[in-house]
Every structure is written in C-alpha cells, then in structure tokens.
TrEMBL record:
Residues 85-400 form the Tyrosine-protein phosphatase domain. It comes from the Eukaryota. Belongs to the protein-tyrosine phosphatase family. Non-receptor class subfamily. Transmembrane segments: none annotated. GO terms for molecular function: protein tyrosine phosphatase activity. Residues 309-391 form the Tyrosine specific protein phosphatases domain. It holds the Pfam family Y_phosphatase. This is Protein-tyrosine phosphatase.
Length: 407
C-alpha cells in the first residue's frame, strides 16, 4: 500500500502505537427502530443520467474525518499491523458476540424467536445465521411474514430514526424464493447484490431465484401477484446500455480525471454479470411496473477475499445503478454475513469519509473500521466473518480514498 494517502502521512509515535494496541470498540449502539414501511405500488425508474452524477470533487470536510483517515493510514503502515488486526478482530468478537449477542442470560436486544419458531426454521439456510427479531424484515400483508433478512442501518448513527440503507439476507433457498421477491417488491428495491455463486466447491450456496430469459408469478395474500421476468443480461465482454454508460461515466467524469489509475481500477469488472428484471404488479385495481437490477459476482470466494480493485469497481457500479440510498440495497452471499458484511462495511465507510457525513459517535472511536464492524455485528450475526475480510476493509478504504484523490 505504498503511497496511500501520502498527504496524511504522519509518524507513528509511541502514544499512537499504544493506542493501536489498546483499542477497545465498546461504545453502545441504540436498538434499531421498528420498521413501519407499507406495501405500495411499484414505480418505473427514470433513465440513468450518467453525465450529472458525481461531478463534484471530494474532500474530507470534518476534522474528525481527517483524523480517522490518518488512523487508518497508521494501521496500514504499522510494521505489526497483522498482529493488530488479529487482536482487534478478536476483541470485536469478544465484545459483541460473547459479551452481548450470545450472553447468558440472553440480552433482549438479540432475541431470535421468529427465526427459531417451528413454522419458520425450515426457511433458514444455516441454523446459526438468523436475524434478530428487532430488525428483521417482515413481509407485508402476508400471513407468514418471516424471511431470513435484516434491516441494516447506517452504522453508529445517533439518530432516533436510523436510515435503513441496506437489507442483508441469505442466498434464497427453494423455500424462500417467492418470499425474496415479495420483499424486493415491498421494499422498493432497485438493486440486488449477489456475492456468491450458485455452487461453490461442489456445495450449493444459493438457489437460482430467477428463470433465465423467462418469467414466473409471485402470489400475494390479498389476491394480487407480481410477475418477475428476466429481460436482459450484460457482462463486460458483452456490455449493454448500462455497462456502456458506466464505462463512459468513469472514463469521462471530472471526478476521476486527477488520477489516471481510477478508470483502470473502477473498470475491473471481471466475474461480473448484470441481469435486468421487469416486475409487474397485477391487481384488480390495475398494474404497475418497475425494473430491478441484479449485480452478481463470481470472483469472491466463500470465507475469503476479492481483489481490492474488483470490490471497489463493484461498489462504484452499484452506486451508479442505485443512485439513492432511500432505496435499500439488498445484499446477499450464501449466509448473508461474511461477504455481505464486508461489502456493506466498505461501501458505508467510503461514503462516510468521501462525503463528510457526520455522526457524533464516530469521534469517540480511534479505529473507525473496527467500530463499524462492531456495529454491523450488532445488527446481524457474524457480519464480516473472517479475519481476511476484516483486513480487506482497511485496505479497500485506503485504496478507494487514494484513487478518488481525497484531500
């Protein structure tokens, strides 16, 4: 990582080294508020205007943001960083998992009654990766409202109404495919991130939840239905309108011109497949239609890491498609925690540091990465599951900020 954030380079004195070794991410996080979203008709999405996206130069606008960038840089430059990562990741697990989520007697914030009920347990792909009751995603107007999915709020916000920016969910099973599309419809989702292949190392990881070049019906309890149709596929080798627009956006956008590495990095889309789906809601009152994109990656191994530039390219493409955080981004791998949590952590951290978002709790954390991962694990179990993935978050954040020329 030589040359990363050179403008923020500071010497690692003895007090900084001691702070790195002693970090303890223990700040409390407010429980997720009850979600009250109602089902509503799908709406058509406007055509992406790539010429008006992301034209403004980026700066770190707060003193705390600059300090946090410096700290991340110090971690990456520290000769004993591998030991620091191991200790800090273990500390996050001890504080959150053993100290809160799995403690005895149980903490009421982390009940999983719905997921473990007899009528729902068969819907879980893995028995140990299940949503907490307080922030699970309920299906609307359905007699059986359970799906293995969690609302994920902006980490560490002190707002009483924390924005639901993401939905982290397991890879659909054959029992939950219809529920998955009900959730996508009801939560007005524009983009699905699929970070797992259907089969990995000979083991099924995700059941295919679409019909290639075909359609199927998803019934709702009120007599209405949703027709899901796969209408188009794009790959880097066979780009369509969206990938062509994205390439033009990267190659010509003023945001990227200060660093000639940016276009090369943000176009590292090997292993990416884009699928477009048409969703038609059909009821006695009429119909409504919307487009939903799926961005699928075959380049990220289970419990492992993806190439940094490939991850950042995927994040940049996802923002190009899903231009508003008001539409939650559905992210899944197989269990919906390891690769899913890593993607969400990097996406959020780069948004925060790039845009100068301001949350008071951040100022108390010297290590913003560890604090965010701890918060995510308070929202869904085992988010950022492996030490390699924890390390990837640090390296990806630093690489992203280097590429876009944060000042």
């Amino acid at each position: 990582m030589d040359g990363v954030l050179d403008h923020l380079r500071v010497s690692m004195d003895s007090s900084s080294a001691a702070e790195l070794a002693a970090f303890d991410p223990t700040l409390p996080v407010q429980p997720h508020p009850e979600q009250g979203l109602l089902a509503r008709p799908l709406r058509c999405l406007s055509k992406i205007d790539c010429d008006n996206l992301n034209k403004m130069p980026r700066t770190v606008s707060t003193a705390s943001g600059r300090q946090q960038l410096t700290y991340i840089h110090q971690v990456l430059q520290h000769p004993d960083r591998a030991r620091y990562w191991r200790r800090t990741f273990k500390n996050v697990i001890n504080v959150v998992d053993h100290g809160e989520v799995y403690r005895n007697p149980p903490d009421p914030r982390y009940t999983v009654d719905a997921a473990e009920s007899e009528e729902n347990v068969y819907k879980n792909r893995y028995t140990n990766i299940i949503p907490f009751d307080r922030n699970r995603v309920p299906l609307v107007n359905m007699h059986y409202d359970y799906i293995n999915a969690s609302f994920i709020s902006m980490p560490l916000s002190n707002s009483t109404e924390r924005d639901c920016a993401y939905i982290a969910t397991q890879g659909p099973t054959k029992e939950s495919i219809l529920d998955f599309w009900r959730m996508v419809y009801q939560r007005e989702v524009n983009l699905i991130l699929c970070l797992s292949q259907l089969v990995e190392s000979g083991r099924p990881k995700v059941d295919q939840y679409w019909i290639d070049n075909g359609s199927f019906l998803v019934p709702l309890d009120d007599g209405s239905q949703i027709q899901v149709t796969h209408v188009a596929t794009e790959t880097p080798d066979r780009p369509g309108e969206l990938l062509t627009s994205f390439r033009r956006h990267i190659e010509s956008g003023r945001r990227y011109k200060e660093n000639d590495q940016v276009a090369m990095a943000f176009l590292q889309l090997g292993g990416i497949t884009l699928r477009m789906f048409d969703l038609e809601y059909q009821s006695a009152q009429g119909t409504a239609r919307a487009q939903v994109w799926q961005l699928a990656s075959s380049a990220w191994p289970d419990h492992g890491v993806i190439a940094i530039d490939s991850l950042l390219a995927m994040i940049e493409l996802s923002r190009f498609i899903n231009v508003s955080i008001r539409n939650p981004l559905v992210v899944h791998c197989s269990a919906g925690c390891g690769r899913t949590g890593t993607f969400i952590a990097v996406d959020f951290l780069t948004r925060y540091l790039e845009d100068g978002l301001r949350f008071p709790e951040f100022d108390a954390h010297p290590d913003l990465v560890a604090a965010v991962v701890a918060d995510l694990r308070r929202q869904r179990v085992q988010m950022v599951q492996a030490l390699q993935q924890f390390q990837l978050v640090y390296e990806s954040v630093a690489r992203y900020l280097e590429l876009i020329g944060i000042k």
